[in-house]
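Tutorial handout. Part one gives the primary structure; part two gives the three-dimensional structure as tokens.
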Amino acid sequence: NDYNKAIDIDPSYALAYFRRGRALYRDDGDCTSAIADYQKYLELRPDSYDRKIVESEIATLSDRKSNNQCK
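Part two.
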């Protein structure tokens, strides 16, 4: 997909990780990969204005994963 291409071209393009993570969960129910991408986004943008929102999303996905509500 386009997000993978963007990351292949520029592995430091943080927004591509965020958007791919969102798509992986929304389209495929893949919490594990979405969490990894959100964490990578935060690693690349530690001072991001939306850090608390992304951390909250990671926590929500982690809860869903532990309750077997997603992959």
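Part three, for discussion. The two ends are 20 Å apart (CA to CA). The mean pLDDT is 95.
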